[in-house]
Amino acid sequence: MNVLIQQFRNLMDILYGKKELSDVSKYSFICYSIACVHIAITIRFFSLNYTFLYIYNFLSVVFYLVIGTILPKKGRFYAIYLCSFCEILFHSSLATLLAGWGWGYMIYTLSLIPVAFYLAYSLPQFGRSMAKPFVFTFIAMCVFILTRIMCDYIQPIYTNRKYDVNLTWAYNLNGSVSFLMLIFFSVLFTIEIRRNEIRLESQNSILEAVSSKDPLTGLLNRRSMDKHLTSAIDLARSKGKHFSVIIGDIDDFKKVNDTYGHNIGDDVLVNVANIITSHIPEDANVCRWGGEEILILIHSPAQTAISIAEKIREEISKSTLQTEEVPIHITMTFGVAEYIPGFGITKLISIADDNLYKGKKDGKNRVVA
């Protein structure tokens, strides 16, 4: 029972595009499905003693079982379609000419049309070209019309054998199978589109994540932080949510770059970023505001922001960056400001920046609010 439930879940995941159906499995299934259709037709023709047709269909069963086992594993999907296209056209025309138009075997040729367009969309060998499916459609249409014309001049050799009884049965069966083929490939088309949509959404998410981060520190960049600040102000205005900003600046960072080089300076920035991200709340946002400046958005009043900034300051002042020359000790100064109703982003950050400047002026390595 658990196995059936798991298989059903896998099927639903495939239908919704969450799980990919491999091309090998897909084309093997298609070949085996066509083989099953030919088995049913073989049995029917055998029961009617239509010798040539049941022998041909038996050989078709063997043909599809062979290509369905060998070609998908080799990635010869285009070859599978060409073989199937030719066989279905030939079988439909042959069965129609021998048994009569009324049996409905030419309906199968109609199902070849959406298959061609599906493969043009999903199969790389088609080269995303719309010319090929139109060519296949034109060929199928010509065979369909030619067979219809020939039926007006050629008398079917099996017409006199229980024709009236089997005509309705065969036509309904062939029509049903053709509709199932149309539905099947329509579902495949839908799955393919949904899978590509999910893949595109995933790629867009990755691009969005990459474009929102500072490449050196992995922190948010300024453009992305602006969105979070705008959202925080909207919540403050609509729901009265408190929030504060912290601006930190690495003390004497220019001296570090001048003394040890920009590579060491980059290492210092990464080290600082790691310390900050490990000491802020989960709902806080932190970005590289510019150069050696870090901006932190805390969704709490100033008192909480000051406590967090003080903890970060202590950890940074205690940290040591090991280099090939000497260990480097750094400190950082922070300015804190809480949102005041009526203020905009620029005004709020200006207050935090003034507090930062005051901290620098008063001796650095401190938090000012």
Describe this structure in words.
The protein is an alpha+beta fold. It is 66% helix and 9% strand. It contains 12 helices and 7 strands. The longest helix has 49 residues. The chain starts with a helix and ends with a strand. The mean pLDDT is 83.
Labels describing this entry:
369 residues, 9% strand, five-stranded mixed β-sheet, Alpha-Beta Plaits, alpha+beta, 2 domains, rod-shaped
Protein topology:
Elements: H1 2-15, H2 23-47, H3 51-70, H4 77-99, H5 107-122, H6 131-151, H7 163-211, H8 222-239, E1 244-250, H9 253-260, H10 262-277, E2 285-290, E3 293-298, H11 302-318, E4 320-321, E5 328-329, E6 332-338, H12 345-361, E7 367-368
Parallel strand pairs: 6-7
Antiparallel strand pairs: 1-3, 1-6, 2-3, 4-5
Helix pairs in contact: 2-3, 3-4, 4-5, 4-6, 5-6, 5-7, 9-10
Total domains: 2
Class based on secondary structure composition and strand pairing: alpha+beta
Shape: rod-shaped
So how many helices?
12
Low-pLDDT residue spans: none
**Helix share of residues?**
55-70%
Estimate what percentage of residues fall within beta strands.
5-15%
Average residue-wise pLDDT: 83
